Every structure is written in structure tokens, then in C-alpha cells.
Amino acid sequence: MDELQALLDASLLATRHVESAALVRLQGRTVCAATAGFRVPEENVLNLIYAFYKDLVQVRREGLYFKEKYYKCVRADEHSLYLHNVHGGLIVVKTNAFLLIATYRAGMYPSVCVEAVEKLADYFREKGS
């Protein structure tokens, strides 16, 4: 198992409040690790990157689509996007080198998902990534 995938599993999935997760390298815009069965289409990767650099106000107002599901915005700033719908939610956190993408489903605690993703993002920031 890839080291980054193991990190996603141990730090996010192990909480039992993250359904799936992926790590996107900003340079190259590629998914470099993902939890089992979680695929992030290239179009979604580009939309999330664009949201951080060009579209935060629009995301706050209108939400966004991810994997053909609409998500309403709860928070959008230069580091984090928190979005939800009736089926669960989407947390996206940007570091210098990566986008961390995590989903949770109904019945999971969003606050635990947010805390785990933000903590992993802090780890990458401390490492300079």
C-alpha cells in the first residue's frame, strides 16, 4: 500500500466519520492517493482547484457539484471548503502542495470529519507540503 494512501486510511477512515478521501497534488492536478474505491474525476479536481483560486464568492453563494451531486456551502475561505447535502458532506482543504478531499455520509459526525481533515492538512503544512 502506498504511503500516502496508508496515511489517508489511518488518519481519516480510522475515525469512522470519513467515508472516503483523496489527496490531489496541485502541481500537475493529479490524484496521488485515494481510499479504496474512491475515484475523483479530473473535471471535479479542476473545479475544486478553480473554486479556491477564482470562485470562493460564487461557491459561498451557489454551492457546487461534486461527482454529479449538489452540495450547499457551509464555509468557504482560502484554506477550506465545507459543503453538505441531505446525504452527507464534502470537506476540501488546501495546503501548499495538496488538496485533501473527504466525504462523509448521513449518520457520520461532520465535526469529526472536519477535525480529522484539518489535522491532516496541518501535518502536511508542517512538512512544507
UniProtKB/TrEMBL annotation:
Task: Point out the signal peptide segment.
Answer: none
Q: Which domain of life is it from?
A: Eukaryota
InterPro entries from the UniProt entry: PFN (IPR048278), PFN_euk (IPR005455), PFN_sf (IPR036140)
| Keyword Cytoplasm applies | yes
**A cellular-component GO term for this protein:** cell cortex
One of the GO BP terms on file: spermatogenesis
Q: Name one GO molecular function term.
A: actin monomer binding
Report the main location listed first in the record.
Answer: cytoplasm
Annotated Gene3D superfamilies = Dynein light chain 2a, cytoplasmic
Compartments reported by the entry: Cytoplasm
UniProt keywords, alphabetically: Actin-binding, Cytoplasm, Developmental protein, Differentiation, Lipid-binding, Spermatogenesis
Q: What does the sequence similarity comment in the record state about its family? A: Belongs to the profilin family.
**What is its biological role?**
Involved in male fertility. Required for manchette development and acrosome biogenesis during spermiogenesis. Binds in vitro to phospholipids, including phosphatidylinositol 3-phosphate (PtdIns(3)P), phosphatidylinositol 4,5-bisphosphate (PtdIns(4,5)P2), phosphatidylinositol 4-phosphate (PtdIns(4)P) and phosphatidic acid (PA). Contrary to other profilin family members, does not bind to actin in vitro.
Report what the protein is called.
Profilin
Question: Which source organism does the UniProt entry give?
Answer: Tinamus guttatus (White-throated tinamou)
